[in-house]
Specification:
Elements: H1 3-16, H2 20-30, H3 41-50, H4 58-69, E1 72-73, E2 76-77, H5 79-91, H6 101-109, H7 114-131, H8 136-142, H9 148-156, H10 159-163, H11 169-179, H12 185-201, H13 203-210, H14 219-226, H15 231-239
Antiparallel strand pairs: 1-2
């Protein structure tokens, strides 16, 4: 693969489909300082996926993702280029190896928005943890990281296990207790999302975990946690003193 040429082709196709009005709306919604071209997410994904149809090697995949991630316009990162970088990694995630969690971490640390972090957390980091369960020890370190987006990644990386019916209940409980006092909205929301997804498959576990913690759990987390619980269980938790 000609990585440089492929990255240039992806950017050319993205610019052809750009919509300045959409770009301004999206930039405002995300409160972004990046350059926005104004390409809908499905179109970004289609263009990105076309770049890896030829089945690149692991090294080529990582180089392409980094090349797209590093695209700038006037010295500022380009939103759609970063989304495309994550898309190519997600599409060929099966090529990634345990050591590549370090590359994912670099991208998360270079992110400043949920729009990049959440996709990386679930599709890249979470996918690696599913395939290589020993990597979950990395999440144990991340849960206490000073950078809020790394802590959010540690929580959301548990989602693939929940969705595939193999939840890491020990870490969900331990991470929940570690973060239950967080004041960061994005951390509170992430914990709530994991509990909400788990409640679809194991509502009794969620009820038993949330109940004793009602005096410390945030309203944001609780609202998400009870959203998919059976109505009677949700009502009891909401009414509890």
């Amino acid at each position: 693969m000609d990585v440089e040429g492929e990255a240039a082709r992806v950017m050319a196709e993205l610019r052809v489909q750009g919509d300045p009005a959409r770009a301004e709306r999206e930039k405002s919604y995300l409160k972004s300082d990046f350059v926005h071209i104004g390409v809908p997410v499905p179109a970004v994904r289609k263009i990105a996926v076309s770049a890896v149809k030829a089945k690149p090697t692991r090294d080529e995949l990582l180089e392409l993702a980094q090349a797209l991630w590093d695209v700038t316009d006037g010295g500022r990162p380009v939103h759609e280029a970063r989304m495309a970088a994550i898309d190519v990694l997600a599409k060929r995630a099966a090529l990634l190896e345990p050591r590549d969690v370090a590359a994912a971490e670099r991208l998360v640390r270079d992110s400043a928005s949920w729009v990049y972090v959440d996709y990386l957390a679930e599709k890249v980091v979470g996918g690696l943890v599913i395939r290589y369960p020993d990597l979950a020890t990395v999440l144990d370190a991340w849960i206490a990281d000073p950078y809020m987006w790394i802590r959010r990644t540690a929580v959301l990386a548990l989602l693939p296990g929940v969705r595939t019916g193999n939840p890491d209940l020990e870490r969900i409980s331990r991470f929940g207790d570690a973060l239950i006092g967080e004041r960061e909205f994005f951390i509170r929301k992430a914990l709530g999302w994991v509990l909400r997804e788990l409640s679809k498959k194991d509502p009794s576990w969620v009820v038993q975990w949330v109940g004793p913690r009602l005096d410390t759990i945030s309203g944001v987390t609780l609202r998400e946690a009870v959203r998919r619980l059976p109505a009677e269980d949700a009502a009891k938790l909401r009414r509890a003193p």
